[in-house]
Amino acid sequence: MRGRLGRECLYVPSCRLGLYVALRHFCPPGGRVLMSPVNDDVIFFVVLAAGLRPVQAPLKPGDASIDVDAVPDGVWRGLSAVLTTNLYGNPDPAPELAARCGRLGIPLLEDAAHAIGSEVGGRPVGTYGDASVFSLSKHTGAKTGGFLAVRDPALRTELLRARDELLHPPRLAAELAYAARPYAEAAVRGLRLVKAARAGMRLLGMAEREEIRMPLRPGELKAAMGDAPGLVPFHPWVRVDMHDYRLTPGRARLRRTQRLLGRLDATLAAHRAGTERLLASPWAPHQGPVQPLFRVPLLVADRDAAIAALARARVTTGYLYDPPLDDYAGAPFTDPSPAPEAARWFARHALPANPLRADTILDVLRASGARPAPAHGD
Fold this sequence. Notes:
By secondary structure, the chain is of the alpha/beta class. Helix content is about 40%, strand content about 10%. The chain has helices at about 1-5, 15-25, 40-50, 75, 95-105, 155-165, 170-190, 195-205, 220-225, 235-240, 250-260, 265-280, 305-310, 325-330, 340-350, 360-370, and strands at about 10, 30-35, 55, 80-85, 110, 120, 125, 130-135, 145-150, 295-300, 350-355.
């Protein structure tokens, strides 16, 4: 990753932990952070855990990137940092955001979890900000690990110390479960037991989402905010979908992660090829250069019906972020976007399509009669 980015990189057991370390280092407690409302709720809770106030940005409807020109001057003047999302790998306008942050004297932090192979302005995503975080759970499929990359290599020692203070010691049971997970998942898929496995997880209390968004639990969240900054009060929210997010990795995790990262170029090439096919479909938004997207946000009139049709073909649709965070959390926990309609429209119609299953997804959408989403504003 140092070679790819030309930046000092620090391994972290999860992207969310790397982001927390970066937020705590670069932002003063009580600061305000501009971010996208179409984002994983875990990231929202990480911002709160860092003792910061999320400020939801207006978005462009085609790809849910931050609309720099639509952010009011008064909002810019009150910010302590800007956090990009690069949703599904589509880049936020990092050059413009970096220039604006430079004039304001505030840090730009890049969440590149979905964008390990994307570029903007002729440079890799993650090379514009003061810091950036990458996930190895996405393109590589390692389901663990990530990187925190920083502009200033002199920060490595300080950030390494901050990371280590947050880590939990390795656990043999967790390592054995991680090593067995790929085989268990393959068996479940092969035996078509996905529904049964999910029902079992719900009975055991291991499924923490019934809907797209996790339960907000506003009373508990308000109490946790009284103890911010800190991860422990926010553990019930930050751990969702990845209970080992603070776990020191063992040899099994590191070996598998290294092996999968070694295949990254071939993986990115496959994602780029699938992205190109999906972007040629009638459901694709207008796009610029083809990126090796983690998911391609097809824009479908009846998104839920399309998801159901794909499920019948054994295609699981994940990484949905509906409703936007300001509608989900409300004014007690975040500043709402000054122009929320584009985010709502995108969140309602976006169908994140896996480029590695492009042909199957396109066949299902054609056969189901899925219609492209109406133009924003219609």
